[in-house]
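Section 5.1 Outputs to date
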Amino acid sequence: MIELEGLTKRYGEKVAVNNLTFTVRPGIVTGFLGPNGAGKSTTMRMMLGLDRPTAGDVRIDGKHYDQLKDPLTYIGALLDAKAMHGGRSAYHHLLCLAQSNGIPKKRVTEVLDTVGLTPVARKKAKGFSLGMGQRLGIAGALLGDPRILMFDEPVNGLDPEGIHWIRNLMKSLAAQGRTVFVSSHLMSEMALTADHLVVIGQGRLLADTSMADFIAQNSRSYVRVRTPHRERLLDVLRRAGMTVVQTGSGALEVDGGQSERVGELAAQHQLVLHELSPQQASLEEAFMQLTAESVEYHAHSDTPAEPRQAWGDGRRKES
């Protein structure tokens, strides 16, 4: 378990991490999200004792990182896949880590096999591709068979097979009761991997909740309906007190409605439906909604937004 309490880091006038308090619990994969410059990397570095907090505290299984004897047996981490001696082979890189942490030599060959690097174990790391370097970094994190694992952008540079492998690996580690903490900008992958989310923006905690609750709380849910009797259905739904949005594609979007209720109303009035589907925002959409005011660097599009018309409570709106 990783526990942060009031964790703060300042660099001169800039506050990189601002009074963070949360707990990373065992048995689940916890995703760590935030825009560029949010303070994620600084937070992870403080967890590992690489940066000293300006204020606050962080503990690994109840201890500060510098109090851990043979730390790789408590927590394994991948923060930078390039943080290795390029002149060493994959095998000797891991052997050096093992010997400095009292880990048996046989464990080196075990983790090399786990990450699929056995065929290149004797090759120098400087010749590795980005994906191979990621696998070697993950091997280093697994080396001490730790109860806590922390990964920063673990799928960076991996091919589809490698992404599938690391996703299943993290889920498997959590299922064993280990603490798994992973930071990534790849929202589609995080949605498939994480059970719980910690989201920060400009160094502050924005959310600490389950994946399902995060999406529900930070997104719009609606029922999409297509019918050849659009005007009649609009009138029926409006009279039922529902807010309906008409899109440029001809579909209707019933805000906050239940598909069963919409379908029943259509059936009662003998209206044919070509589509009736509940819609929930993706993790990416929910994340963008929550962090919109915390983004440091904004890009702008010249493409105008699609016009939308909304009907509700008998009033027409333009948005």
